[in-house]
């Protein structure tokens, strides 16, 4: 128990270092702006006093290390300054956090669905056989669609098809669509989640990984030994799959949380990804940086959670000392 | 021994055939093997790696993976009055054609079928100890929990604390020093020899009629090997269970077994009593003769 | 048997990879003036001999735009794949082989890059610098170094204790030679092909995605498979050809590259075993 706490504490420390490192990386990226940094990051015609305020906020007028210190001092408590363009004068944190939470929920639950589906499919498919070839090929093709292509199929393709059928049979143009485009219902979120799950080739990557893990556990010697003594193998298999499943989940987070940006834009969902792209297009710099930090920090925190789960489940993690 | 038991032997394997598909084509790893084990008897199976000895025993356990796997033969286990034909229904599961070219129609159906049939047999009927003890234990569960799982299956009405005490008894029985510490340890915290002792405790705690030991000493240090062999000898002393002891070490097999079977390239080339082999009585197959010679034992008459 | 079961998939995906390679290599030599190709008397023509894949809403030939659209991602994608594979192999080998402080530093650095959400970081860079496809491809290459490095590191860690590797070292071969030739070249090649294919697919995804969204990718009238799909917004269901063809091309290319990489890696593992 004490060893467990020690390992967890060390993991927490590592996560903090990672957070500092990632924020420094983001800061260095900001400083790499060509020419006059303030000009590069603000829209044209920004009044000079706002430019001066920005320069002070991001420490652009001093050397990178001092500047980073100044920036970190207020950004670490969640103060990312005020929005310039999309909602001038509003606190970035106050406007971005709720939006970001939506994105995290969308990406997180989509990835969870992906994990559950791949596990189910792996169990159903079992050992790889020649018979699976067709299915695998089909899955490769279907799931490789980038999210925006899948979204186009879902929204335009299905809706236009239905409209064509309805009109072709002599009725008037329907006032509704099978896949709603309005942002008011939950349905767009549902479809966005599906698109995230099947899009970007993520599904096959995950399926291959999870399937290999399940086969490795099922065919391992200790499962044979448990069978031979006449005990049920299910709890043993399930417990031994927790660590691979958690690892598979967090390792795909950076990909999925990035994918959320495009999916939200295509489905016009008012999440953090949509806001990020809007802010980026209109050069609302504090919002872009604030959201980037939030996205990155969430990945680091979820990695920490995964590490703690791994340590609790697998005693060998404690032995390895984290 | 009790091979002449009127009720017949405990285990009877007849004409067992196992084949695997490899990149180089179909390979027959076990080619018509027949043998039997009487109640309380120790049968040693001797052979080099790839001789089919492990595959034969895995087939008895119903744990052969891979395609096509078991394609022919019969395995019969007698538990008290009941007789279990473990490969019943196999011919119907094979696609038509000669045995040599046969493929199972539905591997998963056959696997489920075997597992269902073996459910009442695994454990009380027979159980196994494998080589590589560290990989035979669930890495995420303490030895104690795994042993208690066995104890509770054997004695379902035992109270939880009584099961814990019983588990420690079993650990003491396999001569583990400090059983209480082993009880709360994980596999990665123990040495190979300790893991194998724990594994043996888990197996015999199921009170099996037949214990299958598949190269249980391979990969262990020489001194530890000797201790494990000695433990098996002690455990078999009371003749409460029969044992199939598989090894490539002729000395181990002769020390433990009543009867010895020598396998090579998927076939049985020799079957004799251990005492005959040890004393060099009777005619010997050339391969057995080589094995005996290599171990500095009297060869007797080479056929 | 296992090897045979991959045969069909290998041929199919190999065909896709070869076709994309061919298109990508030929495209730069085909003259095309995107601004000049508009012809309003040939709008939304269905496939014919003159226009094998039809024309779009501005009367431009879909087939030639599909061909020229490969320019947007082909060389950037190849470059990104190459860079991340080379850097990933180097960092992975160092992380797997070295010990102590160097190992911790390299691992920490890789972990750091790996926590950046891919597309979010690309958009951040696009906000700060002038967005261009080569810039996006370079950022993608760097972001995928940890993914490649992890695979290589695991391989190096398992192989470093293998007897034949130790034997080579004992025979006096230099560690760098053993690492580069015996481990990276002989053992990791299929894995590196797989990772490279994955990065290529991702560059295609980002390029077409951003071009579809319209601000940071390829701008009209220049063709990109992404902005060709985006035309769906103006078509109102009139003709599926202008957006269905590039959609299918994107899906086929990404699935082809992914499947090709996975099958090559799976076969490589079988051969090693």
**Sequence stretches where pLDDT stays below 50 over 5 or more residues of chain A:** none
Broad CATH class of the domain at 99-281 in chain A:
Mainly Alpha
**SSE pattern of chain C, N- to C-terminal:** HHHHHHHHHHHH
| Rounded radius of gyration of chain A (Å) | 24 Å
Provide the residue-averaged pLDDT of chain C.
84
Largest chain interface and its two residue counts? Answer: A-C, 65 and 53 residues
The CATH topology of chain C corresponds to MetI-like fold
CATH topology of the domain at 99-281 in chain A: MetI-like fold
What is the count of helical runs of chain C? Answer: 12
Helix content of chain C: over 70%
Helix fraction bin of chain A: over 70%
* Low-pLDDT windows of residues of chain C: none
From the alpha carbons, calculate the radius of gyration of chain C and give it in angstroms: 22 Å
Multimer state: heterotrimer
**Strand count of chain C:** 0
The largest sheet of chain C is: none
CATH architecture title of the domain at 99-281 in chain A: Orthogonal Bundle
Annotated CATH homologous superfamily of chain C: MetI-like
Q: Tell me what portion of residues of chain C adopts beta-strand conformation.
A: under 5%
